[in-house]
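Usage

Read records sequentially. Each one opens with the input sequence:
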Amino acid sequence: MDGNSTLRVKVEAGDRQVVAHVGLHALGAFADRLDFGGRLSSQIGWAGERAPVHDRGTVLVQAMLMLAGGGESVADIEHLRIQDRLFGPVPSDTTLRRTILAIDPATFGDPDRFVGEVDRLIRDIRASKRLPGVERIWLPGEQSQTRRIERMKNGIPMPEPLLASLNELATELGMAPLG
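and closes with the structure output:
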């Protein structure tokens, strides 16, 4: 498998065929020039009676592109799938999930040392000088996790205009208002 996460394209100015994610394509093309996908592929084996359809290194590079584009979960790989003319065959979220689960952390070194390095990196980030008005430096995923916990506890906030509109409709239909 070739390990490339992008297709070769020529981007021209014009008034037709507007393309989303062209910046991600440039990042992916850079990763391809470095053979990043190929190097990952050589480190992540597969087990089973047949080879995977998608090259695992390519899947991981495309996952990194998805994250760079603002994705927050494996389901967000769909944002690249709709741009197949830029990224070629992009895996499903299920394939991405399987690929991630196939990674043996020991491939990248001693797991205890890795955890120690991540902990050190987190401490360094937290100790960074903040800009004026910045109370906290957030790590990836912390804000969405905090919102999830808060919403599980208190519910999803509803904007006042929407609540008023729904209550008005409920009254018209003879139903109790929401609150």
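Summary fields computed downstream for this record:
- The two ends are 58 Å apart (CA to CA).
- Residues 22-103 form one domain.
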